[in-house]
Design brief:
Structural class: alpha+beta
CATH architecture of the largest domain: 2-Layer Sandwich
Radius of gyration: 19 Å
CATH topology of the largest domain: Phosphorylase Kinase, domain 1
Number of domains: 2
Bound molecules: adenosine-5'-diphosphate, magnesium ion
Helix content: 40-55%
Strand order of the largest sheet: 1-2-3-5-4
Largest sheet: 5 strands, antiparallel
CATH superfamily of the largest domain: Phosphorylase Kinase, domain 1
Number of strands: 10
Shape: globular
Oligomer: single chain
Length: 258
């Protein structure tokens, strides 16, 4: 149960969000703001304001299938990224196969609402495991229900670009770093990302940062090995455009070696 905020505070918060929506009402993204800022999510974001995690939501960075990512600022003036999962999503079926089969979720079958909470929980948990293992991911800051707060990857001017939008100075070095992170995730965090692609690697300058870890699974997951191979193949496929030849079998052997 959410505890109810004081009515005055809550109404002024709602007015802030409304002003912000109106400012952006011409944009095609308006519909998804309305979806993501349903009453329940407003309450949950409000909790993050009142507990001091964030001081303001600045602007949306991305509107995805399952949720939106916003830049936020805390009271110290530091930037944060806030990922809010929509409480209703059309990709529910795809999500299920990454949660079922993960021993952390005890093989339980979830209804849609619970699955989305489990998903956000899993993403935050994965972020913590990967961060502790030394994989370059956004540092986890907080999670409240379906909302994840993490380190903002970007600079004063703009969020970091996805790998696909950046022309690399030294593509070989970047490909090696990504493969090293896959290996570290596998060997130290015991996780397979399962969706490594040029969309889920951000470039902070020339440094790759791995994001979108909700679907990462533990090695005990029945598809973990298959998805590891898919991740390595994806890296090899992408770097072919830079004429870099990655030996997938060799890399896999290296990652898995005892
Ligand atoms: N921590 C972050 N800092 C800056 N931008 C981010 C951060 N996390 C996500 N983004 C931006 O939001 C986009 C979508 O985030 P992602 O986690 O990949 O969600 P999804 O692909 O499920 O919508 C990313 O491609 C990136 O541009
Ligand atoms: Mg993504």
């Amino acid at each position: 149960m959410c505890s109810l905020p004081r009515a005055d505070d809550y109404h002024s918060f709602e007015r802030e969000i409304d002003k912000w929506r109106v400012r952006r009402k011409d944009s095609k993204e308006r519909k998804s703001y309305d979806e993501v800022f349903d009453q329940q999510n407003l309450m949950r974001v409000y909790k993050l304001f009142t507990d001091g995690t964030i001081d303001r939501l600045d602007f949306p960075i991305s509107t995805g299938k399952e949720g939106n990512v916003f830049r936020a600022t805390n009271t110290k003036g530091e930037f944060l990224a806030v990922k809010i999962y929509r409480t209703s999503t059309s990709t529910f079926r795809d999500m299920a196969k990454y949660v079922h089969g993960d021993p952390r979720f005890g093989g339980a079958q979830y209804n849609k609402r619970k699955l989305i909470l489990a998903w956000a929980h899993k993403e935050y948990w994965n972020l913590q495991l990967l961060y502790q293992a030394g994989v370059r991911v956004p540092k986890p800051v907080a999670r409240h229900q379906n909302i994840i707060v993490m380190e903002y990857i970007g600079d004063e001017v703009e969020p970091a670009r996805e790998l696909r939008d950046v022309l690399l100075d030294d593509p070989e070095a970047v490909s090696k770093k990504i493969l090293a992170y896959i290996k570290l995730a596998y060997r130290k965090a015991k996780l397979v990302h399962s969706d490594i692609s040029e969309f889920n690697v951000l470039m902070l300058g020339q440094e790759p940062v791995i994001i979108d870890v909700g679907q990462a699974v533990m090695l005990a997951h029945p598809y973990a090995e298959e998805w590891l191979e898919r991740d390595v193949r994806n890296v090899a496929r992408y770097f072919r455009k830079y004429k870099i030849d990655i030996d997938v079998a060799k890399e896999l052997k290296e990652i898995r070696k005892a």
